[in-house]
């Protein structure tokens, strides 16, 4: 009985170690199939209209310095949380009167939705761990967002996507 217990323990340890190796070999990094150039094009199509409405110039929701400090193991989680926030709090509440800009906004939202779905799948397969850093960055983002008037915060969030795009180009392109 002791030998069987030892064997079961050994097998469990081996399985656990194999799972850890699989997670480590994935590098905690999920592939991103988002067409960044297309995402950039859609952002450009709405940026001019929103830039005129962005009256708060001394606040940024996304900061390049902060994004560049995100540990690679937490980038996926950060993008997942950010995508979720944009899909729940920004895109549904933003209205643009021009049909052309509305189409661009719809494409932009669909790109973020696709990225969010892709990263959610990656997260559910345990290749996208969430740690303190991604939680803290998103908490700071949310706090700054909610301190602003709603429409101004939404416009700022869409405008700040150019910072995210540059970060995505640096970390996920190529």
Automatic annotation (TrEMBL):
<keyword id="KW-0202">Cytokine</keyword>
<dbReference type="InterPro" id="IPR020443">
    <property type="entry name" value="IL-10/19/20/24/26"/>
</dbReference>
<dbReference type="GO" id="GO:0005615">
    <property type="term" value="C:extracellular space"/>
</dbReference>
<dbReference type="GO" id="GO:0005125">
    <property type="term" value="F:cytokine activity"/>
</dbReference>
<feature type="signal peptide">
    <location>
        <begin position="1"/>
        <end position="25"/>
    </location>
</feature>
<comment type="function">
    <text>Immune regulatory cytokine.</text>
</comment>
<feature type="disulfide bond">
    <location>
        <begin position="76"/>
        <end position="128"/>
    </location>
</feature>
<feature type="disulfide bond">
    <location>
        <begin position="77"/>
        <end position="130"/>
    </location>
</feature>
<keyword id="KW-0732">Signal</keyword>
<dbReference type="Pfam" id="PF00726">
    <property type="entry name" value="IL10"/>
</dbReference>
<protein>
    <recommendedName>
        <fullName>Interleukin family protein</fullName>
    </recommendedName>
</protein>
<dbReference type="InterPro" id="IPR009079">
    <property type="entry name" value="4_helix_cytokine-like_core"/>
</dbReference>
<feature type="disulfide bond">
    <location>
        <begin position="30"/>
        <end position="122"/>
    </location>
</feature>
<feature type="disulfide bond">
    <location>
        <begin position="76"/>
        <end position="130"/>
    </location>
</feature>
<keyword id="KW-0964">Secreted</keyword>
<dbReference type="InterPro" id="IPR020444">
    <property type="entry name" value="IL-24"/>
</dbReference>
<comment type="similarity">
    <text>Belongs to the IL-10 family.</text>
</comment>
<keyword id="KW-1015">Disulfide bond</keyword>
């Amino acid at each position: 009985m002791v030998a069987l217990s030892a064997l079961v323990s050994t097998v469990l340890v081996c399985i656990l170690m194999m799972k850890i190796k699989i997670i480590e070999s994935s590098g905690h990094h999920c592939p991103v199939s988002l067409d960044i150039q297309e995402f950039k094009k859609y952002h450009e199509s709405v940026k001019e209209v929103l830039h005129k409405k962005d009256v708060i110039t001394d606040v940024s929701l996304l900061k390049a310095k902060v994004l560049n400090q995100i540990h690679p193991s937490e980038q996926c989680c950060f993008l997942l949380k950010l995508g979720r926030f944009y899909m729940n709090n920004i895109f549904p509440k933003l209205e643009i009167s021009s049909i052309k800009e509305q189409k661009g906004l719809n494409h932009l939202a669909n790109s973020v939705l696709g990225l969010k779905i892709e990263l959610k799948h990656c997260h559910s397969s345990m290749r996208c761990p969430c740690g303190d850093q991604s939680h803290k960055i998103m908490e700071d983002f949310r706090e700054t967002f909610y301190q602003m008037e709603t429409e101004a915060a939404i416009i700022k969030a869409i405008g700040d996507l150019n910072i995210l795009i540059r970060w995505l180009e640096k970390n996920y392109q190529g």
